[in-house]
Structure formats: structure tokens, C-alpha cells
TrEMBL record:
Organism expressing this protein natively: Opisthocomus hoazin (Hoatzin)
Residue span, Myotubularin phosphatase domain: 182-622
GO cellular component: cytoplasm; membrane
Source superkingdom: Eukaryota
Cytoplasm among keywords: no
Family, similarity comment: Belongs to the protein-tyrosine phosphatase family. Non-receptor class myotubularin subfamily.
Protein name: Myotubularin-related protein 10
Amino acid sequence: LSPVSVLGEIVVNEVNFVRKCIATDTSQYDLWGKLVCTNFKISFITDDPMPLQKFHYKNLLLGEHDVPLTCIEQIVTVNDTKRKQKVLGPNQKLKFNPTELIIYCKDFRIVRFRFDEAGPEGAKKVCLAIAHYSQPTDLQLLFAFEYVGETYHNPAKKVNGIDPGGGGGGIGSASGQQTPLFETYSDWDREIKRTGASEWRVCSVNEGYMISTCLPEYFVVPSSLADQDLKLYSYSFIGRRMPLWSWNHPNGSALVRMANIKDVLQQRRIDQRICNAITRSHPLRSDVYKSDLDKCLPSIQEIQAAHIKLKQLCVNEPFEETEEKWLSSLENTHWLEYIRSFLRHCAELVYMMECKHVSVVLQEEEGRDLSCLAASLIQVMLDPYFRTIVGFQSLIQKEWVMAGYQFLDRCNHLKRSDKESPLFLMFLDCVWQLLEQYPAAFEFSEMYLTILYDSARISLFGTFLFNCPHQRVKESTEFAISKNIQLGDEKGLRFPCVWDWSLQFTSRDRLLFHNPWYIGKSAPCVQNGAVKTFKRSKKNYSSTLRGVPPALKNGIISEQEFLPRRNSLILKLKPDFLQQTESQSNSMEEYFRDWFAKPVDLHGVILPRTTGTQIKLWKLCYFRWVPEAQINHGGFITAFHKVSLLADEVDMLNRNLRQCKSNSSLQGSCSELDQSRMYFRANSLNNTSGVPDFLSSSFPFSPVGNLCRRSILGTPLSKFLSGAKIWLSTETLANED
């Protein structure tokens, strides 16, 4: 038995006769095999079939039981006879022979192995190897560097038989359109022309990162600002991060990001000069509206604390003991409250640009955390291009990767950062909330969002590996020199790009990315009275974005509206939000009221509904590894399956009509009919009325063998996390040696 490996991957240690635990109350379903630690992942290789599993999507880089090293959060070794457990850090000694290994993953998985039949020394060595290689001390020790080094020394070799293409674009949609990476002058210039920002220009003053190491080489500034002025002003900004243009509204309003000005004496003068330049770039010479995100939104520390509480609730809490308090415990994590805060604040800024026709400046201390999320979310609400797959990927490149979001620190790839914070996950969660409310407005599915989040934990791709573009150039150049790699004219090594999805998935599996509800621009916008997301009644639209239900009268809310449905996974309404309505302007309320009273234009602005019952927990992302939370033959995927069949049938009929009208040959007709953008196809199933056996609420993921609770068959949600008491909390384990 040997693991499926990629270029540059080497086996560090391995041990035979290992048992992977599938259930805790019986060993009937346990799998026997070999546990392997490489410099890229941990692999469990077995000939035994996975029990009770009929489907799982296949990642070409990872085996069925593999975990990337950068996805590991904590490693715990246990000795049953001595009743000892130890959280393993890098370069630590293990004084006992482990009988069990528990791996806590960043994606909420828990994987458990037993060494009852394995040699004690072999078990100890593989545990120490996993601890060492999953907690590297230096950025250049991450696997991406080893892989890229091998590709330069062996250019003929390819991963999965496909050329990684360096940082080039990848398969983003059915048309194969490439994702712009915004590394070049031309990418920014095309975006200016696409948005009609005629009074803005691409600035190359930071070429070679001469001004700021945390800005891209090219970015967009007002045409009235000269390069010399920008150089002069840059010294006054934190990190020398000058104002960055993000997007232009058709009415001329601009969205701009800006770091704080640290020079107190020059603050007012420089601020006025920047605002004047933005005003002159507006065709109506409208004012500039500044939003201080540090004051309006939760801090990165608060978001991290909320994420830790959410993980404890979804993974470690014994639900059978806290069933009555589960909803209040969810509320106490503040995760959904922060989701609501971002959606609400961004909706208000959409109002300023859309209705007031003013440019918006997002101000933040360094301008590379909260502003990434806010700027991206505003553009998703305003621009339908960013609701397509290629557009969404270009948005992440523009507002996160190139704008200097600190993926290395915030994702904590080196396991030693006190700056960890899941802002990128929160952004994907916010987008999921919009997708849930307006499914026909997005080309991509929630499976796409979940897999995108997982890809940030795979250390092969350079997209989510660095704190800024300059760090990629600097670190990879140093690595190239140490490995005698000739770079030529290239600025650093070229890492595989995550947007080339063909590196991870087959063309068949990539069809899961496509949303069957999506109504493209070429199709007419059909209003269906049965779909509530398209039209709301007047009694429900008032103060929707203020978090106030229709039953609120004279500051009093009825008990029926306040209490959530039992066993609901929706955050109940907080009383704190009920006091906010009076302070809001009448014009903003009127704009929201009018917008919600009209049918939704799927290719125009979309606004979030942020009442307590509308902000939900993203179950596919957070519950997918929990067998007890799995609903066999149920969940959102059943609707996805039915709509996919209908959409595929409609597409097939349209293709038939086009073939008949064009009188093309039979051969051409057959080739076109074979094409489909749906994963589930109407013509490939004998019985379209039934639900396939492999469908469950965890689809396309399999919770079997990932979170070892008492039952693997799945129980009602009231039994959720049954048996969790056998798990020690990570906090308890961290305090014991």
C-alpha cells in the first residue's frame, strides 16, 4: 500500500497495522491499514471499503482519508494503560508509547487512530513526525516551496498530468474563461474600463514594491493625483498604504479603501487632499462618505473568539446535556451576530452609493482586514459580475490576495501566530447568506464556497499562502537562490493557482460548482410567485435591514415573534437590535422599504434580509463531519438534485430546438446533447422521481470516519453530538501533559 503522491512529496514516516476508528461504541466498522506522514499530508491507506458510504467527491491531490498538514490544528496522543495524554508540539519528546492518536482539524474534523496492533516505537515515531511537519518554523518549509522547486528542476513533470501553469488563471466557468489575477497593469486597466471609471488611472508608482511592501505593484488612483504627490503622501499612512480604488458604480460613485494617517500634524491636510481628488473623480462632484470600520464592525480578535466558541459548540459540546440551551449557546458565540453586523453595515454603504450617489471610503487602521471583507461584500451586492464564478474569483484576487490580506498570519499556517482570525471564512459565510436568500442570483453553489474554504488549507497553492504579493516574491526568490533555480525575468517563483480547479477535481466533479437556480444574463428574468425570495408582501418589508420583525409596535415585540422554533438552527433575535431603528435616517429606511417592496432584479442590486430568522447557520460547512447531524435522503441537496434535473432537461430541450432550427447534422446534435452544466443529469437517470441513495445533508462530503461518535447511522437532530462526553475539550488537553 502506498499513498497517492504529487511532485516533491516524500514519505517521512509510516506505521502498519493501524486501526482507523469509525465508531466509538463498536469496532465493527473500523478500518485497518497503514498510517503515513509525508511532507504534504497525513494519509491512511487501506484496502477496506468505507462502510455505509456510497458517494464522496474526489480531490485529485488527496486520498479518501487524507488530511493536509496545514489543516491540522492540534495533535493529541493517548496511552490507555497509563491514562496519559499529551498535546504534541514541534520538537517535543514523547515519554510514553501512544495507543491512540487524535487529530483535531481546522475544518471541524476529528480523526482518530488506534495502535493496538502496531509496534510501539513505530507508533511513537509517526506521531512525532506528524507533530513536527504539521508545525513548521519557517514559511519556506511549507510544501508549496518543495513542489515548485521540483517543477523548476523537472519542468516535464506535472501534477496529476496537468501543467500547473504557475500563477495563471484556471477553469472558472463552463466557458473556460480565465480568472484575472491583477498582477499586471492590463488587468487593472480592463477593470477600470469594465466599470466605466473614466476619472481613475492605473498607478505604477509601487513597481518593484519601492513604496510599500504590503501593496500590489499596480493599483488604481484618482487621475488628478500625480505620482509625486502619492510618493509624498505615502509616508503619512500606516504601512505606507495609500488609498486604493476598488470599484466604480455606474452613477460615478467610487468605492475606496484607505489606511489611517499616522502623521497627526499632516492628517487633516492629506485627508482633505485625498477626499478632494476622489470628489473630482465623480462626474457630479459629489461628497465623500467615510466609514470607520474599526468603530462600526467587530474586531478581528472578537471574530476569532466567536469562531473558537462556534467550533467548541459544533465539535466538543455534549449536546444531549445542553439541548435546551443549544440555541442560546449558539447566540452566545456571537458568530451570527457578527455576520449580521457585516451584512447590515455593507447594505447601508450600498445605499450611500446607490441612492445618495456619493463615493464611499472604507477606513481601517492598516486597511487590510475588515476592509477586505466590507469592500468585497459591497461589490457582491452591487455588481452581478461578482456573483459569477470567474467574477467572484477575480474579486478575491483583487480585494484579498493583491490588497495584502495576511493569509499566512490569519490562517495561522505556521501554527505560531497570535494574529489568527477567520475573516475569510466570515466573508464566505456572508456570501452564503446572500446565496441562501437569492439563489437565482449566483452562478456558484454552496458546495463551491465550502470547497473554496477547504482549499485555503492546502499548502500547495500560492493564492492563500502569503501575507502580501511582496512576501511571495521575496521568500520565493530567496528559496530559488538557495536551490540554484534560475528565475530569469520572473519576479519570484510561480506557484500553482487555486483557481485552476482542474488540479483538484475532474471536469465531472467541477459541475458541482454550478448553481442550477442561476439565471444568466442571456435568460429572461422569470418571476415565480411561489418563490418568496423574489417578492415580499408589504407587511413584511418594513425595517427589514434593521432587524425588526413586523410584529414590533411601540417598541414591544410579541412573544410569538421573539421565540424561535424548537430545534431551529437559526439565531433568535437579540433585544439589543430592537433599539436601533429610531436612530436611522428616514431616507435610508424609505430606500430599503421601497427596494423590498419591488420584485428583485437578479442582475442588479441585492440587499440582505437581516432579521433574526433570516441569518442562519451554514450547516454544510460546519456540520458536514458530524454523523448525528446528517440527514439521509434529506437536506438542501434534495432540492438541489430536483432543480438540477429540471434545469438539465430545459437545457436539453433548448439544445434540441436549436439543432432542429439550424438543421445541423445528427452527429453535431449528439455531441452538443452530451454537454451539460449540471452534475445531476435528467437523461442519465432511469428514475428521476426518486432520491439517489448517496444523497444526504452532508453531500458531497462524507462524515463517516471523520468525527467518531457513538453512532454512524445518523440520528435525529435532538440526539446531535450524542456521546461527545467521551471527548476531552482541546482546552483541557492543552493544560495536561
